[in-house]
User: Fold this.
Amino acid sequence: MKESDIQREVLYTLSKIPNSKIQRINNTPIYDPKSGKHRMMNSRYQDYGVSDIFLLYKGIHFAIEVKTPKEYKYIMKNYDEIRNGFFSHKSQNSTERKKARYQSQMIYIEDIIKCGGHGFFTCNDRHALEEVKQFFKK
Assistant:
């Protein structure tokens, strides 16, 4: 199953929460056929690592990063190494670029939590719904 398929399932499941607002965020650089390159984010107000889905529920902002089960397992297993490593988005090494992307996503979620929201990685709709429910059981 592709990440986009999982995103659709998460969106569908979380959209059933009454009195909530859910939004899919498209944060992929756009390909410019004139220059033959992807247009990079060049605003100081646009962060790397913005989560795939935003949910607003009971006044709490949830930042939800969706991954395939394989990616999710890898990230959870290597969380500290990725979070504390030094990786470049511009590296020629695809593994390093991927780790840089994961790291940016981790930092973005941490920032949301510091601001009073909640954020998490997920690989299916049941887990995402459970994360939202568990937040309010604290």
Remarks:
- Residues 3-137 form a domain with the Trna Endonuclease; Chain: A, domain 1 fold (CATH 3.40.1350.10).
- The chain has five helices and six strands.
- Strands lie at 20-24, 30-32, 37-39, 53-57, 60-66, 118-122.
